[in-house]
Amino acid sequence: MGGPENHLWQWQGLDVAWNLEGEKINSPISIVLIHGFGACKEHWRNNQSALSQYAPCFAIDLIGFGNSSQPKAKLKSNPQNQIGFTYNFDNWSNQINDFCNEVVKTPVLLVGNSIGSVIALRASQLLKQNCRGVVLAGCATRALDDKRLKEQPQILRWTRPLLKTLVRQRWLSINLFRNASSPGVIKKVLKQAYPSGTNVDDALLELLQKPSKREGAPEAFHGFINLFDDHLAPQLLVNLSVPVYLIWGEKDPWEPVSEAKKWIKTFSCIRSLEIISDVGHCPHDEAPEDVNRLLVKVIQQAT
Question: Phi and psi of 8, rounded to 5°?
């Protein structure tokens, strides 16, 4: 698969993979694309080139994914002196914040998908005036977070302690990961995530499968499935000073569009909500022409 040349940046002793298109574009801002869980910088394959016509466009692999380092997961329950990386939203957001300050070195527009959207919101708080806006192209609402437990059926509330005990077991999470990363399961998930089937091709399967074959790939999965109390998008949207733009798939199977409609009525920082018909959780890849058109408008407003 073609595309921009990959680069590595050293962050806290770890390798962070990133790429850039539009390096010579004269723009007061740059765009930073942040992928979702299980994805990588190549998931913006149908966006980066188009956006780079208007501003330098970076895509980055979060720690644990793509070609970035995949260190051993350190859980909250582990001893303080244990070596490892805590896979959580603060650490990923610190990665984005430092990347923007040390590599990008211009004000940025952050664009995220799924958990990448939550990370973008948190990173915007850290970047302060160096962030000119955040686009949530499908946002994880994290329905299983402890803070949302009251919304769950009673049986799930009763079994939560058992669930937490089970998923802390690395042998179990490794087996769950092996199943989840098998080609057959990935194809089934993509049928849900991309209800129209558009752009579900061999290149997509390859970019999702390849990082999962690396030795440390199960570690991010182990860390993430143990995140039961972390940032929620609505909490981050309260009193946020930067403008936020929502792009949502009408048929998102996991994050209902009703949530986005609620947010735009609740949070003053949200400037717009664009709902794209017949697409799911990854609107940027399932309907890239529509999303690129919307993102260009935001870029023009931000500059």
Answer: -120, 140
Q: What is the pLDDT of residue 3?
A: 64
Distance CA(100)–CA(103), nearest Å, equals 6
- With b meaning 16 or more CB within 10 Å and e meaning fewer, what string describes 19-56? bbbbeeeebebbbbbbbbbbbbbbbbbbbbbbbbebbb
CATH of the structural domain 6-302, one choice from 3.40.50.2300, 3.40.50.1820, 3.40.50.1980, 3.20.20.70: 3.40.50.1820
> With DSSP H G I counted as helix, E B as strand and the rest as coil, what are the percentages for the chain, rounded to 5?
45, 20, 40
CB 57 within 8 A of CB 20: yes
Q: What is the pTM of this model?
A: 0.95
Residue 62's identity, in one-letter code, is: L
Residue 294 and residue 277: Cα distance in Å, rounded?
Answer: 14
- Residues 178-207, buried b or exposed e (16+ Cβ, 10 A)? eebbeeeebeeebeebbbeeebbeeebeeb
Separation between Cα atoms, residue 181 and residue 210, nearest integer Å: 10
Distance from C-alpha of 94 to C-alpha of 166, rounded to nearest angstrom: 29
Q: At what angle do helices 170-180 and 154-167 cross, to 10 degrees?
A: 110
CA atoms within 13 A on the CB side of 258: 3
- Answer whether 285's CB lies under 8 Å from 199's CB: yes
Question: Which pLDDT band, with edges at 50, 70 and 90, does 1 fall under?
Answer: very low
Write out pLDDT tens, residues 54-113.
999 999 999 999 999 999 999 987 777 788 999 999 999 999 999 999 999 999 999 999
Neighbours of 3 (CB within 10 A): 14
